[in-house]
Write a structure and sequence with these properties.
The complex is a heterodimer of chains A (450) and B (334).
Chain A lengths: L42 E2 L5 E5 L9 E2 L6 E2 L4 E4 L8 E2 L3 E11 L5 E11 L18 H10 L12 H5 L9 E6 L8 H8 L1 H15 L3 E7 L3 H10 L6 E6 L8 H9 L14 E5 H13 L5 E8 L6 E6 L4 H7 L9 E4 L6 E2 L13 E5 L15 H5 L6 H9 L3 H6 L10 H5 L6 H12 L1
Parallel strand pairs in A: 1-14, 9-10, 9-12, 10-11, 13-17
Antiparallel strand pairs in A: 2-8, 3-5, 4-7, 5-6, 7-8, 13-14, 15-16, 15-17
Helix pairs in contact in A: 1-4, 3-5, 4-7, 10-13
Chain B lengths: L24 H11 L1 H11 L1 H24 L10 H11 L7 H16 L12 H12 L1 H4 L21 H6 L9 H6 L11 H13 L6 H16 L11 H6 L3 H8 L10 H21 L6 H18 L18
Helix pairs in contact in B: 1-4, 1-10, 2-3, 2-10, 3-4, 3-5, 4-5, 4-6, 5-6, 6-15, 10-13, 11-13, 11-14, 14-15
Classes of the chains: A alpha/beta (450), B mainly alpha (334).
The structure holds iron/sulfur cluster (2 copies).
Chain lengths: 450, 334
């Protein structure tokens, strides 16, 4: 059933009869908690009565509003235009009237300016762009322009404008486009469900990405807890000569870009470098489906799938919602938050941000909403120098010393310890018996460096 | 839940990550204390009431000192974390059976007050507190600390109790008939400090810690391995009889030191390479002391000496940073 697909010398072992998974140095093995939602088909929720669309939905500079208060907009209409080289487009996600442009709670924790649209009509229609029927013959620039026009950003959580990644940096060549379907954060099952339910779209997205970046080879890398998705994918890929699958070990942070490429291509992205330095490009599964939608159907990015999961929810699930939908509606759809004190995490439990307000909206990079019980415990006890944080750091750093250098404001020590290489995955803090806020100290150190 | 939700539900906000391993300082320390129980049991079997008395005195003194100092420094009370209990027990394990209980208490007070708290408390001390305490009593009451009486179970007929020698002492003096059998050394039926004689009991505790991931194999393996190798390769000093490498491993404080004291997190290196270097250093110093030193032991000194080198070892054994060719020396040009 499973086929051996080898493309030497790039891949060492991909998949053979006896399943063998691949991984990277460091990291942690944790319960993935995917069982709550992995079998729940994606359910589409109706548009919210009011959509809150923060301008800041992408890394880089946020787009500039191009609508006035009171303007009538239709779903898919541009309401904010790109404002720089690393920026994106923002569209109205519902039919309605712009009722305010004001500060609103943002999933990052702080308040931030948002365009508020009062919904006038439900319905699934949208005013889109012309489908690019002949994308296979289209110039890479045209595809990239379409991706920017559709407002697509990295939907796995980083929110980096997708068209920027699709362009090989000057002097570099991209040989391989990798679809990141590791989904290593516990609870989240967005990529898993998309792979199962929209297999063809993921493959189409990958092919468009390959075309846009000039990559000859495509790879879909899946953690072994999604074996059903992998089987379906392999059937869809039967006729593809240049697209391969890689089965990954279930380990956090398997989906971190550098760790993923180390696993898939056995190459290390140099410190301070980009995937293009090893001839690769990585895009998330949901980003690929969004790109396929934009190119094949002319559909801008106005909705996304969000996993709502955690402890004490009656109906956890995967929901397709319009951008700007407040978290309260998602929790309602999942059966409401349980009583008592809780933590509500936007994103996964390792890197997500704890929320304080249920009115905070879903943005392009919101992959999940996780409800956890509170965790009362003493924090930031003195470091025991147990060395556990070194063992798990996937970047080979010394988190205990980095945190101490940052805490003491010793900027040079922090730089000497390669603090800038930290990707803030949280493995070190996860294992620390002294419950030190290592990631926050390191963030502080990075801020000092600037 | 029906209808729309109150937007003002109370949520707790805390920084990422929001998941934890569940490993906490008290859990680590109490597990170490539990892993010392087999050795404690062995000490009671071989030395009886005398061992109980020392352990009780040392633990009580350590805990009280810790509490008093936390109070004086206006810090939260830390005796619940179990580290004072571990220090007290380890100190008692390092005492000969016939020293008075007040001496054990004095050692524990010194260990906690000076070696640990004067440096800033758990996490900041440079030297292993129990070994520091032992060094203090050994220097203050030298003759008491070098007088060993036989275990309860030994056949002592015809032997003057006061001249009973430890296996290492016997080998040093070439008292071949006083060197116990390898089996007796392994189970702990020999003269020595109360908690150090039974390699078997110590190894049992060590296995528990190793399997739970609370200690790394690196320091004990490098330590024991280098002692075995060097005692096998090097000739013994003048006037002594050679012990086999296995006899070395099972005698004196080596097993206790390698499994429980050279693996103390706070005072040893953080990286894998550093741990190997630390163990190697301890092993080399111990072997040289044992073969040629003025004192047939050497475990406590070797660990304390290597404790002093720990910051240096840490600095030169940083892991290679992902995506760089050379390991990051520190400070490295950015
Ligand atoms: S895991 Fe925590 S206690 Fe252990 S060395 Fe790292 S920072 Fe220190
Ligand atoms: S130091 Fe940074 S990269 Fe290393 S484990 Fe901690 S958060 Fe992850």
């Amino acid at each position: 059933m499973s086929r051996v697909r080898l493309a030497p010398p790039f891949f060492v072992q991909i998949r053979s009869g006896s399943v063998k998974t691949r991984s990277f140095q460091g990291g942690i093995r944790i319960d993935d908690f995917k069982r709550f939602t992995e079998r729940k088909p994606i359910e589409t929720l109706p548009p919210p009565p009011k959509a809150y669309l923060p301008l800041k939905q992408n890394a880089g500079s946020p787009p500039r509003p191009v609508v006035e208060i009171g303007a009538e907009v239709s779903a898919g209409e541009v309401i904010a235009a790109p404002s720089g080289a690393v920026s994106s487009t923002l569209h109205a996600s519902v039919f309605g009237k712009v009722s305010a442009i004001a500060d609103h709670p943002h999933p990052s924790g702080a308040d931030s300016p948002a365009i508020v649209i009062e919904t006038a009509a439900a319905g699934n229609g949208f005013s889109g762009m012309e489908p690019m029927v002949d994308w296979e013959g289209a110039a890479p620039e045209d595809i990239r322009a379409r991706v920017l026009e559709a407002g697509i950003v990295g939907m796995g959580g980083a929110g980096f404008p997708a068209q920027v990644k699709l362009e090989p940096p000057p002097g570099k060549k991209i040989e391989t486009a990798v679809i990141n379907a590791a989904e290593c954060e516990p609870f989240l099952t967005v990529d898993h469900r998309l792979l199962l339910e929209e297999t063809e779209k993921v493959v189409a997205g990958l092919k468009i990405i390959m075309r846009a970046a000039g990559a000859a080879r495509g790879v879909v890398a899946v953690e072994s807890n999604k074996a059903d998705a992998l089987d379906r994918l392999e059937r869809a890929l039967e006729k593809e000569e240049n697209i391969f699958t890689v089965l990954l070990t279930v380990k956090y942070p398997q989906g971190a870009e550098k760790q993923l490429l180390k696993t898939v291509a056995d190459r290390e992205v140099p410190s301070g470098g980009l995937p293009a330095d090893v001839g690769c490009l990585v895009h998330n599964v949901h980003t690929a489906t969004a790109i396929a939608d934009a190119v094949l159907h002319g559909r801008p990015l106005i909705e996304r799938v969000v996993t709502v999961s955690g402890f004490g929810l009656d109906r956890p699930g995967n929901f397709r919602v319009r951008l700007g939908t407040p978290f309260s509606r998602l929790l309602e759809a999942a059966g409401g938050p349980p009583d008592g004190e809780l933590r509500l995490i936007a994103g996964g439990p390792m890197t997500g941000v704890a929320q304080r307000d249920l009115g905070t909206p879903v943005i392009k990079s919101t992959s999940g909403l996780v409800v956890l019980p509170p965790l009362p415990r003493a924090r930031n006890l003195p470091c025991l120098r147990c060395g556990k944080c070194l063992t798990v750091c996937p970047m080979g750093l010394v988190p205990c010393d980095l945190a101490r250098a940052a805490e003491k404001g010793r900027r040079e020590d922090f730089a000497g310890l390669s603090g800038a290489d930290c990707m803030e995955c949280g493995c070190c803090a996860y294992v620390c018996p002294a419950a030190r806020d290592l990631v926050q100290f390191i963030q502080l150190g990075k801020a000092l460096e600037e | 839940m029906k209808g729309s939700l109150p937007t003002k539900k109370k949520f707790t906000v805390s920084p990422a990550p929001h998941f934890f391993s569940g490993r906490t300082i008290p859990k680590v320390m109490w597990t170490v204390a539990a892993a010392l129980l087999p050795a404690l049991a062995a000490s009671v079997i071989f030395f009886g009431w005398r061992a109980v008395r020392l352990q009780a005195a040392a633990v009580a003194a350590a805990v009280v000192t810790e509490a008093v100092i936390s109070r004086l420094r206006r810090r939260p009370l830390t005796i619940g974390d179990g580290s004072a209990v571990v220090t007290g027990l380890l100190l008692a394990f390092n005492l000969p059976p016939d020293v008075p209980a007040w001496l054990a208490a004095a050692g524990a007070v010194f260990a906690i007050a000076v070696v640990k708290q004067a440096f800033g408390g758990l996490g900041f001390n440079i030297f292993n507190p129990a070994l520091g305490g032992r060094l203090f009593v050994a220097h203050s009451w030298l003759s008491r600390m070098t007088t060993f009486t036989p275990p309860l179970t030994a056949e002592t007929a015809g032997l003057d109790a006061m001249t009973y020698a430890t296996p290492l002492g016997a080998a040093r003096e070439a008292l071949v008939e006083r060197i116990p059998s390898l089996w007796n050394m392994f189970i702990g039926n020999t003269g020595g400090c109360i908690g150090e004689t039974s390699a078997l009991a110590i190894l049992l505790g060590g296995m528990v810690l190793l399997s739970m991931g609370y200690i790394s194999w690196r320091i004990p393996a490098a330590y024991l391995g280098s002692v075995a190798l060097l005692t096998w390769l090097l000739p013994v000093g003048e006037g002594a009889v050679a012990l086999s490498p296995l006899e070395h491993l099972f005698s004196g404080g080596l097993m206790l030191g390698a499994v429980f004291m050279a693996t103390d997190m706070v005072t040893t290196p953080v990286s894998g390479k550093g741990m190997l270097a630390f163990g190697l250093g301890c092993g080399t110093i111990t072997a040289v002391f044992r073969l040629y030193g003025g004192n047939p032991e050497g475990v406590s000194y070797s660990i304390l000496i290597m404790n002093a080198f720990t910051p240096l070892i840490d600095r030169f054994t940083r892991p290679r940073v992902f995506g760089t060719l050379k390991k990051g020396l520190w400070p490295r040009k950015a």
